[in-house]
Amino acid sequence: MFERDDQLAELTRLFSECGAGKGGVALVEGPFTCGRSELLRIVADRVRGQGAQALTANCSRAEQTLPLGAVIQLLHSADLAPDALTELIRLTDEATVAWTAAGAPTATFPLDVVLVFQCLSRAVLELAASTPVLIGIDDLGHADPLSLGWLLHLIRRIGSARVLVVLTDEQDPRPPQPPWRAELLGQPHFRRLTVAPLSGAGVVDLLAQRMDRRTAVELTPSFRAATGGNPLLLRALVGDHLQFGEATAAGYGLALLSCLHRGSPDLLPVARAIAVLGDGASAAELGQLTGIDQTRVQRAIREMAAAGLIDGGTLRHPVARAAVFDDMTAAQRAELRLCAAKVRHDGGAPASVVAKHLVDADEPVDAWAVPVLQEAATQALLAGRPELAVDCLRLAHRSSSGDAVRSVTLARLADAEWQVDPSAATRHLPELVASAHSGRLAWRDLMTLVRQLLWHGRPEEAGTLLTRMRGGDGPQRKLGDIELWLAVSHPGLAHRPNLALSPSGPPDSDVLASTDPQLGSAAMLAGLLSRGGLTEAVDRAEQVLRDIHLGRTTPWADESTMLALLVLVGADQVHRAAAWCEKLLSDNEVDGLPTWRAVLAAVRAEVALRQGELTAAMAHGESALGRLSLKAWGVAVGLPLGAMIMAATCLGQHDRAAALLTHAVPEAMFQSRYGLHYLHARGHHHLATNRYHAALADFLACGELMRTWGLDVAGLVPWRTSAAQAWLELGNRDQARRLLRDQLSRPDSVGVRVRGLSLRLLAAVAPPNRRLQPLTEALELLEASGDRFEQARVLTDLSRGYSLVEDNRRARLLFRRALHVAKICEAAPLVQELLSVSADGERMTTGAAPTEGIVSLTESQRRVAALAVMGYTNREIAIKLYITASTVEQHLTRVYRKLDIKHRKDLPVDLWDATRTG
Question: Sorting pLDDT into bands at 50, 70 and 90, what band is 72?
């Protein structure tokens, strides 16, 4: 016993006075399960240990209707002769009969009953004449009326007898006790003692029994918060902690249920209502949920709060809430949750709160609840909780009546499921297509349905639906956005005449009500992309990315984001694209949007590939495929797979690339832009494994598709440079030269990366003495683009070029730079190629670069120069060193002067070892 010393001392004193012929009555009050019974048991054991008589009885709700049930327990616990006990029991039977015959009155007992009371009291007083007697009755509130009547009869007669009556009861008694208690309180020899949940110090003492005191002190705040100081809960929680490290249903949860079942009958239903309604439930709401009047609800709340079971009207621990739920049947839980939803709705609670109860019930709902579920789904999507939106819409769809309402709800459900797992939405497509042809879907839902059909490789159904939409009575202007998007994503289905429509023109009011703004953004970017206007599209793309949080939950948000990022990539703004990817991926609001994160990871893989970060590209691609299954990716799987195949090929992991190519992909993928990424990557795998004709076929297939579609944009897929490389491997230099010159003459070749790739290959078909100029320009372009892998390839070619013109010093420097950058990229085939060069190449690896002038550089200049040698652009150096690009340029100018060089490519490779940065 903890914090019960004062009560024990008082009871011990009263019993001592009792032994001296001074009878008394003590009432120990306090919340249930807080030690009243234990205190009475200890006192009774001490009395028996002193050789005195201890008559005890434990009252219970189940025996409350048993006449003289408590008295009979007292008699059986007394040290009486068998004959005397038998006679007294016979008297109790007579009293029961007389009381029942009189109609079981509680105010005035019949004479026959009073006579029995006298006989029973006389027996106790005669027993006390030989030894002090303790009469202990636990849980007095559950005593039967006859036992209470006899107890008062005895208490009136023990003033000078050696009898101490110790009773335990709650502080907040329930009828019919108050009149009885009022008379008890008026007795001159009455004492009242109270017990309460343990204080912080008491909790420390209890915990210190089972663990070291320092740990007990550390755990006390959390243990007291979880139990309110209730000793029964505390002991259960300590046991759970020592065995499992946390509260469990079998320990703490069961102890809580024991407390509730031992309290008043109202406790359990009120606790269940609290568990369902949660924080802030009023007594009136709890009463509506339980069918118990408000006064009794308030009494039950006080009772549980006093016992430490609730705090502020809420169960103290999640395990407590779970235990209360598990104590109900599934039918009881569902009924209670449905009732809670109605109570909350009638009370004006937000739709999300009401919907949570409806979803948890998982039962068909009434008509009033369907709009609530739909509103809650919208709120859940805005909060980045698509799973909850899916649950709400599934239930709304099950409960909807009427084909039109069901169709609209199903369309919204498919949209929500798309954000969690696009493959989950496929099962709804047949019904949605039927609804579309029946005219039950709004225009916005029709356009979203077209995209879902195309994503899942069902172009025939999408084409049929598009034909119906194009021939409909609605304004053709509505089709402008979808046609522009189709021209880039699924060009074979685009209706070219409609492409003249501008998505940014002034639409009519009908269009405003039905067009998704994110579809408008996707259409705008698609239009710029299809026209090859990547440079002018950069600012528009970044504006879309800045505003994406405003419409992230729309069905077209991921598509507009993907297109915006690909525009940046195609326009050689890979560093900006990478920064946007990281910013969007780090947004906590997208944690619950698997499709969104998967799309971002796939684009991030493509970005890393364009930066020459091959291992990172593989990792991001794996992340994309890990978040969505191959089936869920549909035709879009070409984007992450393409990036991974290309990265594996550049890394020299040809077996891995071949394994990726064994994945089954939808045939319809090759009718979409995603197929271009896949074909291009597959071609490079064939090229790296010496299957040059197969590689050329894939590259030319890319070109044929892009020309046919009117989407011949090198920033998207540079098929001409890749095909030229295949022709070179096949020994057809004329075909290679023709393709490269064709590429360089195109308007989209203003892109620095594509021009750099073209110039590198064009140098390969030029005479040795004319290779250095295009390679030098290619290196500058590729440094500006940020593609380190392609930089390494150009550096390799430049090294060979200078070796051919017998400028061995520059050849050595470029060779070492190429090797260093190739190692950074982890491009094993390129590293191996560099390490297995000809005899001239071997001499290049052993030569030492001059270090004159390096010692004269300042620390800042050495840092800048070292990063420049490693291939970083001025912008990258500025970001890494937290300085401006102008400062970088000034440092490099001074470095060139001190080292007596003119260009970045002439920087001594020894600078890599001169300082360690980045």
Answer: very high
Distance CA 76, CA 874 (A): 98
CB–CB of 354/341 below 8 Å?
yes
Alpha helices in 550-672 (DSSP H): 557-570, 574-585, 594-611, 614-627, 630-633, 638-651, 654-661
Pair 589, 382: CB distance under 8 Å: no
Three-state DSSP class for residue 902: coil
- Confidence at 150, pLDDT banded by 50, 70, 90: very high
- Beta sheet of 190-194, edge-to-edge order: 53-58, 133-138, 163-169, 24-29, 190-194
Q: Which two tokens stand for residue 235?
A: 């002991």
> Cis bond leading into 179, ω under 30°?
no
- The candidate with the shortest Cα–Cα distance to 16, out of 164, 136, 129, 115, is 164
Give residue for tokens 């209706």. 495
For residue 618 the two structure tokens come to 């593989």
Residue 188 burial class via C-beta count within 10 angstroms: exposed 0-12, middle 13-18, buried 19 and up: exposed
Say if CB 617 and CB 657 are below 8 A apart: no
Question: What is the bridge-based pairing of β-strands 163-169 and 133-138?
Answer: parallel
Distances 379 to 90, 385, 387, 467 between C-alpha atoms, Å: 72, 9, 12, 34
**β-bridge partners, 56:** 136
Sorted by sequence, the CB contacts under 8 Å of residue 721 that are 6+ apart come out as 714, 739, 740, 743, 754, 757, 758, 761
End-to-end CA distance of the chain: 65
How far is Cα 533 from Cα 521, in angstroms, rounded to an integer? Answer: 15
- The beta-strand segments (E) located in 139-186 are 163-169
Give the type of residue at 663: H
For residue 296, give the amino acid letter.
R
Measured N-to-C along each axis, helices 351-361 and 330-346 cross at an angle, to the nearest 10 degrees, of 160
List pLDDT tens digits, range 468-481. Answer: 888 865 545 567 88
Q: List phi, psi (to 5°) of 169.
A: -165, 170
pLDDT digits (tens, 9 = 90+) for 392-422: 999 999 998 888 889 999 999 999 999 889 9
Torsion angle, alpha carbons of 518, 520, 525, 527, to 10: 160
- Cα–Cα distance for residue pair 847/815, rounded to 1 Å: 11
DSSP string over 426-443: GGGHHHHHHHHHTT-S-H
Nearest-angstrom CA–CA distance, 724 and 745 = 15
pLDDT tens for 580-606 read: 999 998 877 667 788 889 999 999 999
Task: Show Cβ contacts of residue 471 under 8 Å, excluding neighbours closer than 6 positions.
Answer: none
Q: Report the C-alpha gap between 330 and 334 in whole angstroms.
A: 6
Q: pLDDT tens, 178-220?
A: 677 778 888 888 999 999 999 999 999 999 999 999 999 999 9
Return d(Cα 191, Cα 744) in angstroms, integer.
105
- Residues 344, 347, 350, CA angle at the centre, nearest 5°? 60
Instruction: Give which of 274, 277, 230 is closest to 252, Cα–Cα.
Output: 230
**Whether 641 contacts 816, CB under 8 Å:** no
Amino acid at 477: R
Taking the C-alpha atoms of residue 19 and residue 277, their distance in angstroms, rounded to an integer, is: 55
Measured CA to CA, the distance from residue 646 to residue 834 in angstroms comes to: 20
Q: For the beta carbon of residue 438, count every other beta carbon within 10 angstroms.
A: 11
| Strand pairing class (190-194; 133-138) | unpaired
Between CA 782 and CA 348 the distance in angstroms is 62
Quick one: 539 exposed, middle or buried, by C-beta within 10 A (0-12, 13-18, 19+)? exposed
Task: Tell me the C-alpha distance between 222 and 235, whole Å.
Answer: 14
Give CA separation, 732 vs 445, 724, 736, in Å: 52, 9, 7
C-alpha count within 13 angstroms, C-beta hemisphere, residue 342? 11
Q: What is the 3-state secondary structure (H, E, C) of 111-137?
A: HHHHHHHHHHHHHHHHHHHHCCEEEEE
